[in-house]
Amino acid sequence: MKKTGLLFILFLCVRFDILSQTSPSFDELAAAFKQANSDTAKLRILFSEKPTKYTDRADELLPLYKEGYQLAKKHNDKANRFKAVHYTALTYLYGKVDESTAFQWLQKALVEAENAQNNLFIGWVYYAMGIIHHHQNNRPEMYKVMYTAIEYLEKAPDPVDGPFISLSQNLENDKRWNEQVAVNRRLVKLMERTNADPFTKITAYNSLVDALRNHPDKKKEQALYHAKTMALVDKISATNLDLDEKLIVASIYFKNDRPNLAIKYANEVASLRDTVGFNLPAKGMAFELLSEIYEKQKQYALALECHKKFHAIENEQVIQRLTDDTGKKVIQAEAERDVAIKQKEVEKQQLFTYLAVAVALLILVLSGSIYHFYRKEQSRKKELQGINSTKDKLFAILSHDLRSPIIGLKNYLMLVNWGELSQEEFKESAQSLTSQLGMVYDMLENVLHWSVSQLGGFFPKKELISIHSIIEDEARILAQSFKNKNINIKNLTTLENQLSVDKNHFIIIIRNLLHNSLKFSFPGNDVLLNYTLTKNAIFIEVKDSGIGMSPEKVKSLFQLSKQTSQVGTNREKGTGLGLVLVKELVEANGGNIVVTSKLNEGTTFRLEFKK
């Protein structure tokens, strides 16, 4: 009994392709296609019949589908473009029995179905893919695509039961009974939602009844759907049934102990004339069912006769397939051999892929290393170019800014030696020379410290220092210079204000910032030094109300160039190196310097150090 059920279910998997007695012949179809007076008519005629009705004319059918595709493409008819590709795939699958080529066409059909955004089309494609995977005994992929098929068909407006039935039978064979029941419940829900025709509902109800037989705890549900099945079966008119439908009705009557009706419907199929296509296997299944019915009735002579006819048809099909010049693959052993060959090809391809990936990774690592060394070398080259450029700038600045005081000193000494200066003039000259020599000294000291920094010699030795004391010391040293310009230093820090930095570095920082404020402040201005403490940082500000700077000047303030060096309010000159040195010393001690300035309103240098 179970064997018969399996045969009918496998037959049902292609029941939408069964050859009916009223279908036009291939010659009639081809003639009607050629004689149609419009592209629309041609497409309607060509796709009105499934390709599996003409399996014996596959080679003649394929060119028609090719022509149909071009017509559909010409009119941007997405539905018929899909049908042309899908029917080509089915022709290779059932007509030429070339599963490899069929699968390639199904992949193309999937693209067309997705372009058409048609869930029904997509479901059909996955269903056909599942049939091929089933033939190739590739069960994991078969289950994957079959589940995908029913997911799309559940979203379609039309009731399609084939994938559900096929999936259900395979789940039963693999004893995945809980999944089988779930799939059949989904089928029943779909049929009822889409208001399927009575026979399609019969198929769904009957499949669920069969699935529930493996669940003794669900007898009530099984009885409910059994009653629904039989109520619909008894209303079915035999004259409206296709071959597969008659076989299913016969099978249902047989399972429900109504053998006379089962024999009636099975005989209607078995009595068909011998022909090619799908009538022959349908007759074989009908004889096999009759054999089982007669055997159960103990009519062994009739059972044996029907069994012989079944085997005769089965042998005829095998011989026909084996002798077909297209090399059709229908023997399970050959299918398994093909699977094994393909598996070896896959494994070989995987090996090549792994080797390619390994080589690619090795090349990538080597390329990365080479690129890293190249970048490092380029960085060093750029750094050396920068140092060299800075050296050139520094020499240019020094040669200009040191020339004037040295020449002035030389001229004054010449005048002294010649006795050309009066006592008063000598006194004034001495004061001027002292001021100029002081600038030269500061300039040379900054150059010395900056040179040490460029040689990588800044290694802060941090200690806790008194900010107030260092500012006071530096203010005393510069007191005369501030007094000469009538500028006041206001140290707003207190003795309690402390900071962990390198003491010598901090002295140079404060000295240069005070020099800068002195240089650019107007007589009568104040220079303010303040201290602020927050939760995470210490801030020290040096603020003046002098000539200030433009935003562009602020941006280039810490770059060594002649353009960053400005003349002070008393025509004081400088190299611009002091502020460059300040920034490097602040950052060497883990700090940061921020400058805010406005033209004619002054400048504020804000030092930030972490606590």
Write structural notes for this entry.
This protein is 67% helix and 8% strand. With 611 residues, it is an alpha+beta fold. The strands form 2 sheets. The protein has a 5-stranded mixed β-sheet with strand order 2-4-5-7-6, with helices on one face. Strands 1-3 form a two-stranded antiparallel sheet. β6 and β7 form a beta hairpin. The longest helix has 70 residues, at 332-401. The radius of gyration is 49 Å and the shape is rod-shaped.
Given as residue ranges, the uncertain stretches (5+ residues, pLDDT < 50) are 1-22, 324-337
Helix coverage percent: 55-70%
Overall structural class, as computed from helix and strand content, comes to alpha+beta
Proportion in β-strands: 5-15%
**Count of alpha and pi helical runs:** 24
| N-end to C-end Cα span | 89 Å
- The overall strand count is 7
Could you report the average pLDDT, rounded to the nearest whole number?
80
Strand order, sheet with most strands: 2-4-5-7-6
Globular, elongated, flat, extended or rod-shaped: what is the shape?
rod-shaped
Biggest sheet record: 5 strands, mixed
Radius of gyration: 49 Å
